[in-house]
Design a protein that fits this description.
With 263 residues, the chain is mainly beta. It has 2 domains: 102 residues, Immunoglobulin-like; 133 residues, Sandwich (Immunoglobulin-like). Helices cover 4% and strands 36% of the residues. The chain is built from 1 helix and 19 strands. Strands 10, 11, 14, 18 and 19 form a 5-stranded mixed beta sheet that branches. The protein has a 4-stranded mixed beta sheet with strand order 4-5-1-8, with no helix packed on it. A 4-stranded mixed beta sheet has the order 3-6-7-16, with no helix packed on it.
Length: 263
């Protein structure tokens, strides 16, 4: 039986289960068409793959058997952005259909996430940008997928995500509390977080550089979803930390710093 058209017509209705619009965490706009999204759970469900749309947006439609959550991998083969693995809650399709019938439609904005992607090794920064290209080490090896927080006066103002090599690019934006005139030296307190070193990857994952990329569960879209924005640390990331002050020169990306050793 048709929902919208007379029975003499053939009707197919697609409903949005999840919208995904990856965002450049530094510039605030869409990350672009080079980013791709793949479905990791459920893997074998027919028709449940993410669909690409213009401008770097993606959608997952309701299909029979779609569970109450999906796991997606967001990555950029060009390494402009550090990949992310997210678990998105899915509103039951029966609830969506009932709301549609009642005229109380659940807006697409309440089923669309805008996860922030942080700069990777190939991210292009302006010539006048301030920041750090650094590495995080743990027990003498790269600290994979480290998270970095930069604070001034105890307030976290900027963040970065590390990649599978322990490398990160922290871009320093405007300090809302600073004077209008730029200082000759900017002192920030850097905190680097990582999970304990993972065990040797399973044999089936040895060719997958993302095998241990942490999975983060996000909230429904809105101000409470601090995981999508990259603010919330993944589970277990308080186990090893580095904390210390670093002096930066405004207008310069600082490189050549010794690896940040986590303890």
């Amino acid at each position: 039986m048709n929902e919208l058209l007379a029975s003499r017509y053939s009707e197919v209705v697609h409903r949005l289960a999840a919208g995904i619009e990856p965002i450049d965490a530094i510039r605030g706009g869409r990350a672009g068409a080079g980013v791709r999204v793949s479905l990791e759970y459920p893997r074998a469900l027919a028709g449940a793959r993410p669909l690409a749309h213009a401008g770097g947006r993606w959608s997952i439609r309701y299909v029979p058997g779609l569970p109450d959550h999906v796991d997606v991998l967001i990555e950029d083969p060009a390494r402009r952005f550090v990949p992310r693995r997210l678990r998105l809650p899915i509103v039951d399709e029966a609830t969506v259909r009932a709301r549609d019938t009642a005229g109380d439609v659940i807006p697409a904005s309440q089923r669309t996430w805008r996860p922030a992607l942080f700069p990777g090794a190939a991210y292009r920064v302006a010539a006048s940008a301030t920041g750090i290209r650094g590495r995080a080490h743990q027990l003498g090896v790269p600290a994979r997928w480290a998270r970095v927080e930069a604070s001034v006066g105890g307030e976290v103002l900027w963040r970065a995500h590390g990649d599978d090599r322990g490398e990160f690019l922290l871009v320093i934006g405007p300090d809302p509390h600073a004077a209008a005139e730029l200082p000759e030296v900017l002192t920030i307190t850097l905190a680097v977080f990582a999970a304990p070193p993972a065990a040797v990857p399973p044999a089936a994952s040895t060719d997958d550089p993302l095998w241990d990329l942490p999975l983060q569960t996000v909230m429904p879209p809105g101000p409470d979803d601090s995981a999508s924005s990259g603010v919330t640390l993944p589970p277990g990331f308080d186990a090893a930390t580095f904390s210390g002050d670093v002096n930066l020169v405004p207008g310069r990306i600082t490189t050549g710093i010794a690896p940040f050793d986590l303890v």
